[in-house]
């Protein structure tokens, strides 16, 4: 890249090239990865000529058909800009002003959205600690009470994350059990599916099998973490409970004027298996990383690797040394727990390089994993 300085304004101006090093690799988030080439092609195809705005376009219409092929004939998709917007919009649509949402304490809506569900959506969150990020009917009942008490925000919905923030996955049977439990109490079920494709890849079942078919009412479907430039969708699975999503989306500043660019990306992702290929690859790289990490003395996995995230505890000072080569996040700094995320474009070379950096930082040669570690990894 070359840069010049405007003599009059004194401002640097980029003349050619890129501003980043394309050889840089990281494990901090699957958001770091670029867009898949097939997604770029879809955007380019949608970019020619003039197309009707605000979702009244052929790409957004085509997306509805694609969504129904994956989630059932009653599903309706509402493309939005980002995951936080999708979650706030979905939860706000589920609840009256006095409603509350039960969620895991580790849920993204509770820990990583800067209070947006509560500040913007006006929704009280009722978080519950869990060992693996997963809720159960028994855990839900810790906060599912107080209906009719005007002094308590009314627990009228449950939000689960699939995969969870700890990378673990609910089985279809577990979600169905939750859905039946909360519906029996007059509550609704929201699913935060920022990495839903990774869960499907792990479970080996269609998307509909652990959403529509098991009683989920509404879900936030993620695309950015699986190769999109930007864009998510709120997918309403139960049309009888749709309270007016078109109006709420506009009110929540999530209505894209040039919606065709979100719709075209998502349609391309969900056509010809791109969503599953990309997610399966990310999961596979995470599994390779998990197996390699478990073989390094002094490093221990903290969660089963069931999607594209690996959680491990490093010895004191080791994380800082590894960060000299790779960026990643602390998960629980007090105990030395870190998180590594793999992406649709993570390579085996990337994984091997990270493993080498961890081994060098720990200062201990790799060993064969014990039988218990092997069992855990499965």
Automatic annotation (TrEMBL):
Q: Which UniProt keywords apply?
A: Pyridoxal phosphate
A single Pfam family, by name?
Beta_elim_lyase
Can you tell me where the transmembrane regions are?
Answer: none
Required co-factor(s) are:
pyridoxal 5'-phosphate
A GO MF annotation of the entry reads:
lyase activity
| GO aspect biological process, one term | amino acid metabolic process
Presence of the UniProt keyword Cytoplasm in the record = no
CDD domains cross-referenced by the UniProt entry: TA_like
**Which InterPro entries does its entry note?**
ArAA_b-elim_lyase/Thr_aldolase (IPR001597), PyrdxlP-dep_Trfase (IPR015424), PyrdxlP-dep_Trfase_major (IPR015421), PyrdxlP-dep_Trfase_small (IPR015422)
Respond yes or no to whether keyword Chloroplast is given for this record.
no
> Domain Aromatic amino acid beta-eliminating lyase/threonine aldolase spans what residues?
27-311
Q: Record's PANTHER family?
A: L-THREONINE ALDOLASE-RELATED (PTHR48097), LOW SPECIFICITY L-THREONINE ALDOLASE (PTHR48097:SF5)
Q: Which family does it belong to?
A: Belongs to the threonine aldolase family.
Q: What is this protein called?
A: Low specificity L-threonine aldolase
List the source organism.
Arthrobacter sp. K5
């Amino acid at each position: 890249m070359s840069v010049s300085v405007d003599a009059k304004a004194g401002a640097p101006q980029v003349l050619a090239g890129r501003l980043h090093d394309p050889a840089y690799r990281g494990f901090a988030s699957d958001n770091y990865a670029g867009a898949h080439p097939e997604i770029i092609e879809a955007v380019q195809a949608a970019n020619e000529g003039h197309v009707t705005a605000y979702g009244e376009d052929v790409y957004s219409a085509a997306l509805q058909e694609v969504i129904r092929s994956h989630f059932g004939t009653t599903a309706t998709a509402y493309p939005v800009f980002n995951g936080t917007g999708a979650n706030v919009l979905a939860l706000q649509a589920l609840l009256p002003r006095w409603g509350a949402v039960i969620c895991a304490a580790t849920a993204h809506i509770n820990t990583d959205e800067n209070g947006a569900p509560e500040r913007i959506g006006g929704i009280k969150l009722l978080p519950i600690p869990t060992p693996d990020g997963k809720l159960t009917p028994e855990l839900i009942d810790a906060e599912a009470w107080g209906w009719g008490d005007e002094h308590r925000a009314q627990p009228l919905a449950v939000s689960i994350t699939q995969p969870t923030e700890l990378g673990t996955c609910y089985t279809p049977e577990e979600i169905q059990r939750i859905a039946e439990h909360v519906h029996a109490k007059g509550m609704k079920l929201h699913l935060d599916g920022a990495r839903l494709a990774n869960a499907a890849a792990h479970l080996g079942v269609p998307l509909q099998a652990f959403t529509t078919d098991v009683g989920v009412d509404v879900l936030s479907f993620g695309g950015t973490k699986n190769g999109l430039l930007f864009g998510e969708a709120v997918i309403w699975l139960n049309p009888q409970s749709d309270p007016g999503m078109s109006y709420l989306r506009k009110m929540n500043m999530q209505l894209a004027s040039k919606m065709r660019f979100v719709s075209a990306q998502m349609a391309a992702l969900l056509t010809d298996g791109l969503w599953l290929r990309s997610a399966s690859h990310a999961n596979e790289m995470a599994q390779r990383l998990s197996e390699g990490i478990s073989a390094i003395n002094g490093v221990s996995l903290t969660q089963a690797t069931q999607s594209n995230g690996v959680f491990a505890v490093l010895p004191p000072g080791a994380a800082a040394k590894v960060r000299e080569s790779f960026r990643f996040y602390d998960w629980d700094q007090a105990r030395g727990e870190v998180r590594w995320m793999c992406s649709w474009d993570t390579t085996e070379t990337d994984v091997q390089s990270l493993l080498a950096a961890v081994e060098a930082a720990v200062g201990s040669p790799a060993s064969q994993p014990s039988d218990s570690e092997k069992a855990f990894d499965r």
